[in-house]
Amino acid sequence: MEKDFHTFPIDTQFSICHYCHMQLQREIDRRIEKKKQDISELERQLGEARAYLLALVDTAKWLPKSGDKEVTLRPGSDLARARDFIKVHGRPQHVADILKGLGKEVNKPNRISLSGSLGGYARKGIIFTKPAPNTFGLIELENGGENKSEDAFDQPDVFEPVRPITQGPPPRPK
User: Fold this and answer.
1) Which segments within 1-108 are labelled E, that is strand?
2) Cα dist. 5→8, 11, 76, 155, 169 in Å?
3) Which residues constitute the domain of residue 85?
């Protein structure tokens, strides 16, 4: 028994191949567009993740370093009294004013001793700041009178958007 094979004319075969090619092309184009959309979404998510990471890094700067211990000054010491003096005045004080406030003579050895002690804490970023030469303030006063490290996560201003500058640059001094 002979089998009859059905044959198609050449133009029909060409149109079938052409149709397959067009279908394949459409499918590839559809996948390309889908992948472009996926990439755009991932880039948006990456931008959000980078912004979040930056906010976390900025927040972490307010926290004490992992090896730091809570530093307390010995009550009655010159440093504890200097801290109290600055806190009462509410702003940084010159070392000569601090010495006067402590009831000590304002001379070179006393200035060097107190400046060295306060400066050591200021360099480490502990308790004291040094906003100007021979002038010392308190970290807690620089942070607006509160210790930011304790409630940095409660502060919504960490994530507030930056408002654009609407004015031109400040005038140049002459």
Assistant:
1) 93-94
2) 10, 18, 111, 81, 86
3) 78-142
